[in-house]
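Give me the fold.
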Amino acid sequence: MPKFYKTVPVEFVQFNQLGDHPAVHADAASPTGYRIFTLEHTKTGAEVTPGDWIGEGVAGEFWPVKHEIFRRSYTPVDMPGAKALDDADVRARKRASHEEATRGMPMAA
């Protein structure tokens, strides 16, 4: 499977309450109480939970990212030593993510 890096920095805002991001709306029908309309969810919207990060793409599109996924996948551009991830970094993050996700699960026989 081919691998790709984003070629431009992506802006994110962490959502905690209404007003943090203009694309997030209150929705009494959503289990979380909040919804955002994305390219994939133009009619139904995607659920947003306080703590999620809202990304904005190059075409002005928005998408929510769960905090744990965001923490493992993104590095601030202005952070000292920030750099694009190389293949070894990606493998290490995937391994750590897999280990965290499967911790405590029974081993297959």
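The chain has a mean pLDDT of 80.
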